[in-house]
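Please decode residue identities from the backbone states below.
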């Protein structure tokens, strides 16, 4: 599960984060404070511990990582890996991600025309795609997954069995994750579920073999509520 933001958190704890000579190479590295990559500009890595990251329209960056904050990527931006521990990641239309997307406690959403070279991993966060191409698989523990209209996931889907380390605090019985494969969507590779889920697959979608769940077919724009 998420690796990049956790390594950043460790670096912060050891006191190695800071702005030094990296700034001359367009890298931005902070402990406290948000980061903005301005529209149309080119940057190296963007790293902060306590703050969000905003990548404006048409900007180009390498990896963007934070611990306590969200990441927002505007239309037509190009990035490397995107990672956060406590925060969501949202990519607007036609964003190109030359790497993977990872969160621990936060949602991931990628809008139309998105391209992700690697995969998407969350622990306690939902994943939503619209007309997006994912080069590898999707993995989560407690999050819902929506592979929306005309999206293509090349590496399958896996929902891992929760452990005590990854269980969110809640009162009462927690509902199983909802996994939706929408109209004209494609999931290549296996769909593996190590815990109870509700799996809905549109009649126009194409999926690989399913283990650990029974697919419920549906028609129309939206999957059944339950």
């Amino acid at each position: 599960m998420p690796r990049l933001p956790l390594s950043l958190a460790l670096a912060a704890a050891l006191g190695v984060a800071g702005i030094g000579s990296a700034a001359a190479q367009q890298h931005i590295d902070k402990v406290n404070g948000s980061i903005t990559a301005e529209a149309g500009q080119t940057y190296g890595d963007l790293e902060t511990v306590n703050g969000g990251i905003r990548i404006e329209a048409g900007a180009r960056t390498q990896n963007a990582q934070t611990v306590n904050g969200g990441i927002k990527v505007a239309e037509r931006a190009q990035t490397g890996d995107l990672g956060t521990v406590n925060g969501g990641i949202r990519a607007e239309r036609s964003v190109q991600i030359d790497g993977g997307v990872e969160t621990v406690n936060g949602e991931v959403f990628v809008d139309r025309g998105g391209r992700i070279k690697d995969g998407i991993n969350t622990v306690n966060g939902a994943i939503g795609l619209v007309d997006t191409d994912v080069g590898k698989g999707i993995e989560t523990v407690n999050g819902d997954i929506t592979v929306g209209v005309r999206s293509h996931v090349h590496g399958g889907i896996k929902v891992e069995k929760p452990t005590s380390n990854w269980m969110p605090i809640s009162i009462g019985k927690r509902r199983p994750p909802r996994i939706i494969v929408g109209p004209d969507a494609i999931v290549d590779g296996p769909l593996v579920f190590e815990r109870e889920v509700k799996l809905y697959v549109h009649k126009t979608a194409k999926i690989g073999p399913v283990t650990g769940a029974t697919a419920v077919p549906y028609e129309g724009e939206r999957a059944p509520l339950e």
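Observation: Confidence is low (pLDDT under 50) at residues 1-25.
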